[in-house]
Amino acid sequence: MTTLLGRDMDIAVIDTLLGDVGGDDALLLTGQPGVGKSALLDVSAQRARRYGYRVIRAAGTRLTTNVMYSVLSDVVRPGGDTLATLSGPLRDALQVVLGLGQGDTPTPLHAGNAVLAALAAQTTRHPIAVIIDDLQWIDPASALVLSFVGRRAGGHRLKFIAATDTVTGFWDGTRLPQHRIPPLADTTAAELVESHFPGLDVRTQRRLLAEAQGNPLALLELGRWTIGDGESAALASTGRWPALNEPLASMYAERIRALPAATREILLLAALNSGGELSILGIAAPGGVLSTLAPAERDGLVTIRTDGHTVDFCHPMIRTTVIGLAHDLERRRAHYALASALSGHPDREATHLAEATIGPDAHVAALLETAAHRSMANGDSLRALDLMIRSSRISVRSADRSRRMVYAATLRADVTGDLRAASETLAVALEDEPALTDSLAATVAAAHILLNAECDVDSAYGLLVAALTKHPGARDPADATLLDALHSLIVICWMRNGGENDWEPVDTAMAKMLPEPPVLLRLCRSGFGDPVRMDAALLCRVDVTVGELSGEYNPVEVIRTHIACVYLDRLPQCREALRRVVRDGRDGGAVALALSALVGSAVDDWHTGRWDEARAEVAEGVALSTRHGYRRYSFVLGDYIGALVATARGEAETSAAAAASLSEMASVTGAGIAATFAHHLRTLSASADGDFDRAYQHASAINTAGQLAPDNPHALWVLFDLVEAAVKTNRAEQARKHVDAMRRANIAELSSRLALIYTACAAMSGPDDGARASFEEALAIPGATRWQFDYARVQLAHAEHLRGMQSTAEASRYFNAALRTFEGLGAEPWVARATRGLRATHSTTYSWRGPAGPHLSARDREIAVLAAVGLTNREIGERLHISHRTVGGHLYRIFPLLGVTSRAALHEALDRLTNEQPKT
Question: Does the keyword Cell wall biogenesis/degradation belong to this entry (predicted)?
């Protein structure tokens, strides 16, 4: 039995018709061409046979539209005693209709009675289902007869099912029951595409879905074209579709060809003009635009918006068909007319000029290049790439063509996420213009490919440093190529994380810039390279720059800004901008930058205690990295950030495997940061196990106690671990020296998290008589509670100190407070440690754990509170930037944990838990 995706409700309507004796006996399926009506008629025939019907099928065709009674010979097949059972007048009429006898042509009413009688005579053994396709092509006489049969099928064991593209005109007046077949829902359309074209990349799939608008025929035909060759896929990814094949042409071509020539001309202009403004069409084709469009509007091909300023096609495939029916010369003329009309819109003008141009054109190529840079600044990376490639193709000079191709290769490697195409584009550019091989622009592209695909840090570093020394524009702070190179080199230096003079080329190049380097470059160099030594003025500038992200849509600028914030704990303020980049990547846009944004988002969620969200971001990022071949991001996300959560939750095997993988990667690729990551995991794992001597050794491998070495930003992430381990292993002097180094560097001025850490470290390493006040000061720092894991660890350290000072009642408060957070995070080793501390104070343990055992996470609590105050799932989702389905999943889990069955009971349950837990 045939199944159709997304058509369960439509099939149910057909089943009701076939199985219901007392209900309707006729059904008219309507819907746009290609929506699947014929497929549903096939299913109708199959199901009718299952119900015991004899099925009679017929269909209208364009060739017989004007042939009277042409379809009836398929409906009433002569044979047996069918004719013999009819009365004389009916038999005579039917013989004439079927071309079996001579006589006057019967009227449609007479013919209708004859056909109905003939069909009824055949139902003595089996009921009959008459199934007719393409009613719109049936001749008028047959249409009258079939509508008569459909209206009078009741009482004759007869069912009538037919399909038509439109119910305007004759069929609209038949009053037959109608069922409109809608386009496929978005999710179903995507499922159809994925099942037929599993290798289609995300951006092409989304373009295809947008163009087809749920029309199954369009989805399948356009999908077949996109997988034809690389050029087809490249065009499809930018929304430029093929010349029409027959299935696509059959949808709307006949109606379009029937329009007046002037209407077709202005429809072509409208189809090529993405904005649809009538004012632009009026300039491109002077005359009465509205009156010229009227025939197309009457035929349901276009609509004029109520504002009277814009024309819209009723379906995207109409636009595609209009373009496909036009000859190449007609399209070029239309593009040229639109370019002239769009002289005040330089980017659109350039696009139309390019389409109108035959052969190389330096002026148009330059316009396209400028438009590409503007598109990138506006956050449309795919359009920027498309424009730059088109610019290169019509360049006159070989040097210009290759230079533009090099830029396109850089976009593909570090923005849109197509490393293979980036390598191919770069190779073609350098083959065409070998002099560019050692240029800084080509080196930047090559470095991105090496870094992203192979994580070959040493080679990328060597190439960039060598190219920088030869770059002619080394002093110009506005040189975009120079800035790209330096921002790339900053990331590479961070990844090397070990060479004593690694950062010297960056500092030398920045020192040459006159009058000074751009602010964002300085922020990245200091914030990502050596945040410990960032001066107060530059730190203030970080906050100003982050505050400007709300209006920044260039994904490159967003990513560079967030890089400057990683070690300064400003990622929470970057999250909305990072979400934009991630969404664009999910839509197939700036995929590579979306990976970087996922890293930043996961780091923020690690620090702020949203560990489940961090794991989800890690999983998404690793899948995306694997799909696109970005090894650089897969190890940062999967082997490090994801493993941090696993380590803190006591997943020892996962942690050990990740650390081993990172150590191996560091030795193979030259990525010293991977070794640092491994030491961090082992430090945290040792702390979790209570092996503080091992924790001290690994933390010291990242940063020697008593100093904060230059260009070692990751030292800021193990400050607490190092001091705690030193104190626990009787290395009091090393602990004090490290705290002194923090004080001299003004670590507490960098962020509330680092202020919390510094003050707590001072409390742990200082005299006992001042420790209590220092711990209290640390826990009272504004904004410190945001950093949940760090805050709970400080509470735990404070509790352990109080217990040692015999202040057991006070200690129990802090043990309990820390325990609540650790349970919410699922930090099992620290849960055990806090629980042991509580038992030692002989105090009651208060827990967020439910009766079934799983912990109530921080996100669970957040959702429960919002639900308790009356917010809907959708409202909660919008506030927390998650889907309403995810909210529902959380609540499904929360209810049994809290022992409630409704939202109304949530408030009381939460109050009860809150009242049980002492405040700190």
Answer: no
CA 607 to centroid of chain Cα atoms: 25
Whether residue 233 contacts residue 199, with contact meaning beta carbons closer than 8 Å, is answered with no
**Cα separation, 525 vs 186, whole angstroms:** 44
The bridge status of strand 302-304 relative to strand 311-313 is: antiparallel
Please compute the mean of the pLDDT values over residues 466-494 and round it to a whole number: 91
CA dist., res. 318 & res. 745, Å (int): 66
State what percent of residues in the chain have pLDDT above 70.
Answer: 92
CB count within 10 Å of CB 566 equals 24
Question: For residue 786, what pLDDT band results from cuts at 50, 70 and 90?
Answer: very high
How far is the C-alpha of 422 from the C-alpha of 430, rounded, in Å? 12
Residue 475's pLDDT is 86
- Which H helix or E strand runs over 128? strand 128-133
Largest CA distance in the chain: 121
pLDDT (0 to 100) of residue 228:
54
pLDDT the model gives residue 861: 77
Mean pLDDT of 491-503: 89
Name the CATH code of domain 362-437 (choices 3.40.50, 1.10.3300, 1.25.40, 3.20.20).
1.25.40
List all residues 6 or more positions away from 899 whose beta carbon is below 8 Å from its beta carbon: 850, 851, 909
What pLDDT does residue 254 have?
Answer: 84
**Sign, Cα dihedral of 856, 860, 866, 868:** negative
- Mean pLDDT value of segment 14-33: 84
Output phi, psi for 312, to 5 deg. Answer: -125, 140
Across 157-166, 263-272, 604-613, least confident range: 157-166
What pLDDT score does 909 carry? Answer: 77
Percent of the residues in the chain that have a pLDDT greater than 90, as a whole number: 56
Q: Where residue 244 falls among pLDDT bands split at 50, 70, 90?
A: low
- DSSP state for residue 242 in the 8-state scheme: P
* Per-residue pLDDT at 647: 96
Q: Is pLDDT at 391 greater than 90 in this prediction?
A: yes
Q: What is the mean pLDDT of residues 866-889?
A: 76
What secondary structure does DSSP assign to 643-685, as a single string?
A: HHHHHHTT-HHHHHHHHHHHHHHHHHH--HHHHHHHHHHHHHH
Number of CB atoms found within 10 A of residue 811's CB: 23
Q: Which positions ≥6 away from 35 have C-beta within 8 Å? A: 181, 182, 183, 215, 216, 217
DSSP letters for 767-808: -HHHHHHHHHHHHTSTTGGGSHHHHHHHHHHHHHHHHHTT-H
Cα 715 to Cα 567: distance, rounded to the nearest angstrom: 10
Check if the beta carbon of residue 185 is closer than 8 Å to that of residue 6.
Answer: yes
Does the CA dihedral 538-542-544-548 come out positive or negative?
positive
Kindly list the distances between the CA atom of residue 192 and the CA atoms of 37, 212, 292, in Å, as whole numbers in the listed order. Answer: 16, 12, 38
Q: What are phi and psi of 162, to 5 degrees?
A: -140, 165
Q: What is the pLDDT of residue 576?
A: 95
pLDDT, average across residues 511-515: 92
> Domain 858-916 - what CATH class?
mainly alpha
- Residues 848 and 860 sit within 8 Å (Cβ to Cβ): no
599-627 pLDDT, tens digit per residue, is 999 999 999 999 999 999 999 999 999 98
For residue 754, give the nearest of 707, 712, 719, 702 by alpha carbon: 719
SS3 content of the chain, % helix, strand, coil (to 5): 70, 5, 30
At 585, is the secondary structure helix, strand, or coil? Answer: helix
Q: Which fold has domain 8-180?
A: Rossmann fold (3.40.50)
Question: How far is it, in rounded angstroms, from Cα 62 to Cα 249?
Answer: 14
* 777 closest CA partner among 786, 764, 788, 789: 764
Mean pLDDT along residues 636-663: 95
Helix H segments across 326-380?
328-341, 346-356, 362-377
**Tokens at 168, concatenated:** 């305007």
